[in-house]
Design a protein that fits this description.
By secondary structure, the protein is an alpha+beta fold. 33% of the residues lie in helices and 33% in strands. The chain contains 3 helices and 4 strands.
Length: 95
């Protein structure tokens, strides 16, 4: 298993619609976190391109993206693109 950082890039015109789906989005990610698959989640603050970063433990980048394929934000089309990076953590621990 490896750790992958997935960048989400959100549709900047969908903020109000995203608020309606946000509780389901967060519940889905919390469930993956409780399973030990998602390690951390956070959104950008005051960024010109709204988005988020999610750390996922998976066998490959493709598997990491597949884990997030059922995210309600993704299913609703609010995520305009996703970028995956294998992440070599140098300092700190991800349990």
């Amino acid at each position: 298993m490896a750790l992958f950082a997935i960048e989400y890039f959100y549709d900047s015109t969908a903020a109000e619609k995203m608020d309606e789906v946000r509780p389901d989005h967060r519940a889905h990610l919390r469930d993956l976190h409780s399973q030990g698959i998602v390690k951390l989640v956070g959104s950008w603050v005051n960024d010109s391109q709204p988005g988020a970063l999610i750390a996922v433990e998976a066998e490959s980048g493709e598997d990491a993206l597949a884990v997030l394929a059922e995210d309600p934000f993704f299913l609703a089309g609010f995520i305009t693109s996703r970028k995956v990076h294998q992440w070599n953590v140098i300092i700190g621990e991800i349990a």
